[in-house]
Amino acid sequence: MSLTLCNVHFSDKSDRIVYLSGSLYRSLKLSEKKKLQIKLGRETITAPVKAVNREGNHVFLSATLREKIRIPKSGNVFMLHSTEDEVQLGPLVGILSDGYVSPSLPFGTRTSFIKELIQLGDNKAYFFGFTPRDINWLDETVNGYFLNPDGSWYRKTVPLPDVVYNRLPSRKAETGSQISSLRERFVRKGIPFFNWSFFNKADVYKLLDKDVEALRHLPESISGPSDEKIRELLEKHHFVYFKPSGGSLGAGIYRLTYHPKKGYFARYRNGGKNVLLRFGNFEELMRILHARHGSSFESYVVQQGIRLVEIDGCPLDFRFHMHKNGQNEWVTAGIGAKKAGKGSVTTHIKNGGSLMTPGSALSRTFGTQADEVLEKAKRVAVKMSEAIERNYPHRLGELGLDLGIDKDGDVWMFEANAKPGRSIFKHPALKTEGRASLEYILEHCLYLSHFRGRDS
Fold it and tell me: Where's the ATP-grasp domain (predicted)?
């Protein structure tokens, strides 16, 4: 098996012959072959092959052959020589999303991210975006969105991809039998499909509740807690977080505190403002929570509060953006330190939090030990990613981990997100990490499609 970066050209010829530059013809050891199988995705054609006098690695296809195999565009792409008479062009990588707004925004707010990824993959692979509506299962094709050199979109029908990167934009977009069936069909066809679905907080805790390695870094958590369990955790830890299992961006989160001499306190956000309420006894506190969320208590999680390191009296936590790389290993692509706003329950930027680099945040909290603490947190992030993957039934390629560091330097994981947002990469000092994140996605798609080799 060999891998070569080659340049694909289209000609006006009407014949069905594949022309290869002499050097590529010789490197593929085709001197005694009269015919060659060429694959793109799941489409295969067989055609006579001839060498032409041209330096470099070039492939020339007639319009007839191009249409038959559905090659989307000319230019550089990898050629995988898997058997002596077969080569595969690609990989063909589909980015699954939704959220159509207009022809210039076919994926809504996800459009710019998908565009960046397609541009990065240009001259290496055939990247395209698509929605569930664009699949024709009968023909095994996808009417995908490709990019012109000027950044505008065009549609092209291609075979089912070699790999699918799932970036459906919301829990709502990926619920329902249609999406469940879509995922299963890709898997049944042997097409790697990574980032299966959004996580619920409770699901992650259940996944890891018997993983000894992971439990060392997980706060005590109870899903669908009874009033008595909330009381037990409050009396044991003195403060807890009460949060919806399927929430995001800090919505619906309470910080509950118990002071033996002062009573019970609930801090939360309401109407864009931070609210702090005091209760004389536990029953009063629970009456308010039941009045606001009584019907959805089963979908809530109560979690041990951790005394995090602080700057200016405001706690810090850290978003670790994790990726699988080209060797199928978990790596940290970027880290954002998030400082809570004054009086806020969470560190979310929309709730008054601010974004810092991990170096600047940790140097203010751990001084000369900052680098050592950061390296420890990176090791824990990799360990927790491996633990989630080990216990999760579907393929993962990307995770967003919310980690906290307490005043002793111990590292805790509060949440894991299967489709993390990319807001940390908006920080001017994290643009390089944002680029690295995209490159890891490309690398991992090459790995999953077997398009890896010395030339890659």
Answer: 371-446
Helix then strand count (H, E) for the chain reads 11, 26
Please state, in angstroms and rounded to a whole number, the distance separating the CA atoms of residues 424 and 17: 50
Closest CA to 401 of 347, 344, 335, 445: 335
Coil vs helix vs strand at 110? helix
Q: How far apart are CA 305 and CA 453, in angstroms?
A: 47
Q: Report the C-alpha gap between 168 and 256 in whole angstroms.
A: 34
- Compute how many other C-beta atoms are within 10 angstroms of the C-beta atom of residue 289: 18
Tokens of 40: 């793109």
**For residue 1, what pLDDT is reported?**
74
SS3 category, 106? coil
Does an H or E element contain 399, and which?
A: strand 398-405
* pTM, 2 dp: 0.89
* Residue stretches of the chain with pLDDT short of 50: 454-456
CA distance 180 to 222: 28
**Contact in structure between 109 and 100 (CB atoms under 8 Å):** no
Q: Could you check whether the bond before residue 91 is cis, i.e. omega within 30 degrees of 0? A: yes
Domains of the chain: residue spans and CATH: 2-90 (2.40.40.20), 92-194 (3.40.50.20), 220-304 (no CATH), 308-448 (3.30.470.20)
**pLDDT confidence of residue 175:** 83
In terms of C-beta distances under 8 Å and separation of at least 24 residues, what long-range contacts does 240-244 make, across chains too?
A: 240/302, 240/303, 240/304, 240/305, 241/302, 241/303, 241/305, 241/345, 241/414, 242/289, 242/300, 242/301, 242/302, 242/303, 243/201, 243/300, 243/301, 243/303, 244/201, 244/296, 244/299, 244/300, 244/301
- What does the alpha-carbon distance between residue 335 and residue 124 come to, in Å, rounded to a whole number? 27
Q: How many residues does the chain have?
A: 456
pLDDT given for residue 345 in this prediction = 65
Backbone dihedral region for residue 344 (phi beyond 0: left; psi -120 to 50: alpha; all else: beta) = beta
Q: How far apart, in whole angstroms, are the C-alpha atoms of residue 352 and residue 178?
A: 38
Phi, psi of 127 (to 5 degrees): -95, 140
Amino acid identity, residue 315?
Answer: P
